[in-house]
């Protein structure tokens, strides 16, 4: 719903701070979807009277106008608007005026000078209407301030009204809710019921045939009305709420709909046919449509109605599709002198079905679909009558015709403070409950013993509940828990039928921010470490490693078997005072010896392809204190893949072992690593590699020395296979990856180009060095460098190897031309030649 | 004329449907669309047609030709597909030969069980806290209300290190450390290694794994303890499992209890596993002793809590029917490999 703050402030004093208003609305359940400021218009925008308007020859729509604007000589202005005519009062923007996105200048159009511009509502930022220039109330003096006319500055709010709140579909409803949440008084418009003059001549026959679909129908007659344009205040109000002024009668019905939230309709009394031609009174009949009944709607559409559609008919034909749209034949026109004002209430389901079936959704159907109360129908009618008399004159004939077969009964509902505490989570005192609910229009009746659901009679309320309690009949033993407050529910709140509904009202008016956080529990768990640890275990288990678990002890003699210096290890070693045996006499400082023991055990059982791992703690003495680190080690031997009939298996090689580490680091998101050969006394000199993050080793891999294997009782020469070792610093990996979150990278919009390069290179130059140098040639465009072949065969001269690289070039901004790719490749070749004298093959 | 066209179309359709080889298709194409074809001759006749009929006649021939072309193309594709299918069928392989994949390795059964327990407790709202294996007498004994002369402190029961530290005998040390560091409410489990100076035998190991749960909050009662035990037992061992607690003694809980579950082997009827009692002992539990709270600066008048703990080995042995605890530390791949097939 679109609302103007200035209009809203007629019914309630709004906070001076717009943000506070927006917050209050949003946090009481009325979401502010958009805030649109309507700033004051510049001084050069004034009301102006079009004195004359003459077509400019040779143009189809331009007119040259003489415009009086309250100061000096009338201005000559060229205007192309279709509704521009002599005598009208419009709005003129004088040269030099800054409008939103537009500066007015003196201009010459088709050889005619134009000193200013007559404006549409859109040009002033008032609405989207650009069908023509503004037509102000004809009584507006030229030169009047447009800011006063349009009550500027103002702010327009776009509110989302949830479907359970039909009472918020009008300004006063929103004001009532605000009065509850702001604690400010509500100022409803004073409405007085005017008794009509008895009239036999201007009278009506009202028949309500279908009280299910139309619980209440009222009609009021006015005679001698003068249909004309609306006064300016009325036009202004409608324009700001997004409606277009039509005439005073229609505008008043729309105004009252916006103000009170209840749609109205006016018929031309003179066009209504009697039921029985002999008795002569025009009739209004709320009935089901006849099969295939034809109806021409206000917008000119021909509709074919059927039973199921509720129509408001005269003595003969449908004059309105009830609650959805009026009919063309009985619409108010300039010639109308007597009107029938309909204020009624329709069943939501029926309105929804009809609106859906005929694809007609109107401000009226929107409201009736959400269930309006029949209770206020007469009040709404009175308000409209009051405004009709004010804007159109005439007189009211007869009393209100009111068909209301089943008037509403009062509804009472109990709410328990203890239930509020239980459900919402904090105490709300009885006085506060009363204050909030009374501000919503509820009426506090009394305290009493809890009754579930709506009651219609206050005599059911028991003031004393102690008797039931003594008899053990109540569910709660505490007095508080049967202690409840009874309220009369206001008729417009058709949505409130249970205690839960009242609790919701209280919770939102008091503010969800008042709900306390129940338990501020400390965050104890290191979830990141937990995930990384599981990630490492799963990576290796997926790569067909078996996890082992060994005691936390070690045999100090086995450290020497690893070729570690005894003096070095002794300083780190924690010895037990009471070990069970010498080979379990200290805390382990590495996982490797036990894994090698496990390997030997399983080799001795005839297993040949083995991959074992352990992730566990090692315990190091650091000076006087102790440190426990999470470590990981794996040993593997034999073939990487199991035997298969389709291919002979291949023995594990260095690159497979390295790949396991690289794959893991990629999984964990560790990118910035360097690799370099690593001194480990148990690894053979050639095949070992350390992965460094800055200067710390996070991972290593390599081939176990034959001699070390021998120390652990494994004879590699006999076995004819190698043993490979992987070790990880788990704690360091956890630290390195902490706080790192995966971020989706936008997919490239432009195709990548792949080019291959083959060349000879001196042995001794590392691939990684070449790849990095190629990338560095143009890091923006060279996305990837990879090697897809290496050859050291007969055709390759001694001291060289042949290398084939694949280079992926891609521009994130545009599609690369062949020319550009060639340029990049040329630079790469040039660099390769310069750095290593490489010539392409 | 119309009749003639229809007849020609029908004739072509029959002939094309009868094509069996690519050659047939070529012949049909020559016969129905080639130089001597009816279609071609009809184009020749076009000049003799009265001008007013020419467009309609021309369109009719065009349609005839397009129709024949379409039929030929469709038949050609059909024949191609058939040929392909025949070739494929001729190359049939022995589909019963085994497929090729790299089998998954395995997590150790104790890891699998530990993870399952962790996941159950995390689902119940617990967090995981860990602590050091090497600890001091304060955290392992004093803070847990163990008297200075308690026999569990003996060298025969507890491993000590040269520097006076000890290897924790229970993960309750983590409870102490968490309560030292964090204010309530606390909902944690602490899994980890523990050490006791027991010789390895079918039901003992000097190194073993324990898992303890600790809850400290306002209004925590023994009923919450029973709830957690029952929830855990059912999720771990099945919906039919029952649990109970029996009075017992631990220095750091008051009241203390031992937890039993109905025998998972005989469903409580009595068997060798449960020594005909129908019940299996799971571990210890109890309400945190007020003395423990006081020592850690938590007001036992405001807060209460429960702790329960059990051995991971025991759960694994019950769950997987492993008869001897030593099997779990042998790391025989013939045992480990059996757990490749366990989905977490």
Describe this structure in words.
The complex is a heterodimer of chains A (841) and B (344). Chain A is α+β, with helices and mostly antiparallel strands and 841 residues long. Chain A folds into 6 domains: 63 residues, Phenylalanyl-tRNA Synthetase, Chain B, domain 1; 108 residues, Nucleic acid-binding proteins (OB fold (Dihydrolipoamide Acetyltransferase, E2P)); 199 residues, Phenylalanyl-tRNA Synthetase, Chain B, domain 3; 100 residues, Phenylalanyl-tRNA Synthetase, Chain B, domain 1 (2-Layer Sandwich); 211 residues, BirA Bifunctional Protein, domain 2, CATH 3.30.930.10; 84 residues, Alpha-Beta Plaits, CATH 3.30.70. Helix content of chain A is 27%, strand content 26%. Chain A is built from 23 helices and 38 strands. A 7-stranded mixed sheet of chain A has the order 27-30-31-35-34-33-32, sandwiched between helices. Chain A has a 5-stranded antiparallel sheet with strand order 5-4-3-6-11, with no helix packed on it. In chain A, a hairpin with a 2-residue loop joins β30 and β31. Chain B is of the alpha+beta class and 344 residues long. Chain B has 2 domains: 88 residues; 233 residues, 2-Layer Sandwich (BirA Bifunctional Protein, domain 2). In chain B, the strands form 2 sheets. Chain B has a 7-stranded mixed sheet, sandwiched between helices. In chain B, a hairpin with a 2-residue loop joins β6 and β7. In chain B, α1 runs parallel beside α4 and α2 packs antiparallel against α4. Chain B is elongated. Chain B starts with a helix and ends in an 8-residue tail after the last helix. Chains A and B meet through α14, β27, α17 and β30 of A and α5, β1, β4, α11 and α12 of B.
